[in-house]
């Protein structure tokens, strides 16, 4: 399931108090997806702490050669892909 749909379902559940996604109108589902897309866009710029955590995972735990700017750019590319209307792949 695409990230935006998972987020939209979570928003709907939080708002309605129950998991009633299948009973929502198509228009309501699209509104929740658009809201989710905007929330994810707001998360596009990672905090320095997020970049450090990513760098630690890739560099120290995985032994890769990366910099904080690599992690920053990778995060932004990942968010950009998440908010695309037609994802390249959900695999």
Explain what this protein looks like in three dimensions.
This protein is elongated. The protein has 91 residues and is mostly helical. The longest helix is centred in the middle third of the chain and has 17 residues, at 26-42. Helices cover 66% and strands 0% of the residues.
Query: Could you say which structural class the secondary elements and strand pairing correspond to?
Result: mainly alpha
Report the uncertain regions.
Answer: none
Mean pLDDT metric: 90
First and last CA, distance = 9 Å
Q: What proportion of the residues form beta strands (DSSP E)?
A: under 5%
The largest pleated sheet is described as: none
Number of strands: 0
Report the C-alpha radius of gyration, rounded: 16 Å
Apparent shape: elongated
Q: What count of helical segments does DSSP give?
A: 4
H-E order: HHHH
Measured as a percent range, the helix fraction is 55-70%
Oligomer: single chain
